[in-house]
Design brief:
The complex is a heterodimer of chains A (about 240) and B (about 180).
Chain A: H1 4-13, H2 21-26, H3 28-48, H4 71-75, H5 84-94, H6 109-119, H7 133-139, E1 145-147, E2 154-162, E3 165-173, E4 178-184, E5 193-196, E6 200-207, E7 210-217, H8 223-232, E8 233-235
Antiparallel strand pairs in A: 1-8, 2-3, 3-4, 4-7, 5-6, 6-7
Chain B: H1 3-33, H2 36-52, H3 63-81, H4 94-100, H5 106-117, H6 120-131, H7 136-143, H8 147-175
The chains are: A alpha+beta (about 240), B mainly alpha (about 180).
Chain lengths: ~240, ~180
């Protein structure tokens, strides 16, 4: 059975909590505390429900809807003309890759990367809170790569799977919003592959024996970020 | 469907979202920024961004979360552009005072003042839970926190408000 401290923590975090009935039936103090917290919450709710001014709808720009079919279609990357041949060769090398642990197949590494961004939308939050060094060292272990802090403010670090391999997924804060960095030590490419979509812009860069994917918002200036990231990463093998 | 029809359908879908969620967007922005004028700017920017990326909203049931996420990001951008100016709670601008002076009522005024003075880390999960009806899991997802951290912040937020209101009552008694 819960004790008073456990119950009060639960009801303090959520006054509509309806567990701990056995404890409540034997503790009139906690019963009174519950009623007090519920009354407090009603007052909080009334205080938060401020009046809302009449909406001034902003001028909405024309949006071309003719090409909008689906998110996947809309965000699918397209390479600029001069890179088409190189990109095609690179893409061909990755045709048929399978997502680790599932039956999902992506036609290219770039497609898998774009799909991965949608899997972890929370990673793309605007914040000024960096991940701690311990977390960064865990996600970017010394046997994979060495990375210094020159890349930028790293606000997200997670080990993810791309092309069946565990890789470090990082997010730094750019001028226009969060920028995703995927370190791909085992994905060797000969030339850069551009990733462009309606709302995103990025590139997969060859770095030593591997590559690094950098994807930001459509209007993000990625040149400086690319340079900083590439300079901050050194593969361990 | 031709381009004109698609545009009309798109606009109708957007207008429906705005009608349903405009109040939530504004109140969330107001309590995040603690400033009515900033909140209006943030909502305007958020609506523009939502309009441009409306096609990325595939699940209508996720619309509220989608819009509030946009508001959260736009609010962060707003303050980032202003180099993280912070609110001096003892020296408020008229626009900031307007948030506290909403629907004058002595008890509500005290509560609003206490909420206003909460740290962002405590105020935001409280707004999401009480005003937006978010579960602790949803709050954790939006704020990037584990559920335990969300529960702790909510508990502490209420404790702080309870203490603040008790102090107000005590000072009221001593003045009378």
């Amino acid at each position: 059975m819960m004790n008073c401290e456990d119950y009060r923590e639960a009801i303090g975090a959520n006054p509509s909590y309806d567990g701990g009935e056995a404890h409540l039936s034997a503790c009139t103090d906690c019963l009174a505390y519950r009623d007090e917290m519920r009354a407090l919450d009603r007052a909080i709710g009334r205080a938060l429900a401020i009046s809302v001014p009449v909406l001034k709808t902003p001028d909405l720009p024309e949006v071309d809807t003719t090409g909008v079919v689906s998110l996947a279609e809309r965000r699918r990357f397209r390479a600029p003309g001069w890179m088409a041949i190189a990109a095609t060769l690179v893409l061909a090398a990755f045709v048929g890759i399978r997502m680790y642990g599932s039956n999902v197949t992506y036609p290219s590494l770039a497609d898998e990367i774009v799909a991965h961004l949608d899997h972890e939308p929370y990673a793309l939050r605007v914040t000024d809170k960096p991940v701690d060094d311990g977390r960064l060292a865990k996600v970017v272990p010394a046997n994979i790569a060495h990375m210094n802090h020159d890349a930028g403010l790293i606000t997200y670090a997670q080990t993810c799977v791309i092309n069946g391999k565990k890789i470090p997924h990082l997010v730094i804060q750019g001028e226009q919003g969060p920028v995703t960095i995927l370190l791909l030590p085992d994905e060797a490419i000969d030339d850069a592959v551009q990733i462009e979509g309606e709302s995103i812009s990025g590139v997969i860069l060859p770095v030593g024996s591997g590559s690094v994917a950098i994807i930001g918002e459509r209007n993000e200036e990625l040149d400086t970020i690319q340079q900083n990231v590439v300079n901050s990463v050194a593969w361990s093998t | 469907m031709n381009s004109s029809d698609a545009g009309t359908t798109r606009r109708r879908r957007f207008d429906e979202l705005v009608v349903v969620f405009h109040q939530d967007m504004y109140r969330y922005a107001a309590w995040l920024s603690r400033d009515r004028t900033v909140a209006e700017d943030v909502v305007q920017e958020s609506l523009l961004r939502a309009w441009k990326s409306l096609d990325s909203l595939r699940d209508g049931a996720a619309a509220k979360h989608w819009l509030l996420t946009i508001v959260r990001r736009e609010n962060a951008r707003y303050f980032e552009r202003r180099r993280l100016e912070t609110v001096d709670v003892d020296n408020l601008t008229p626009s900031q005072e307007a948030l506290l002076a909403d629907q004058p009522d002595h008890e509500l005024d005290d509560m609003r003042d206490a909420i206003y003075r909460l740290d962002d880390d405590y105020r935001e999960p409280l707004v999401l839970q009480v005003l937006m009806g978010y579960s602790t899991n949803e709050i954790g997802e939006l704020m990037g926190l584990k559920q335990g951290a969300v529960l702790t912040r909510l508990h502490r937020a209420r404790s702080k408000l309870r203490n603040a209101m008790d102090s107000e009552m005590a000072s009221g008694r001593s003045e009378s």
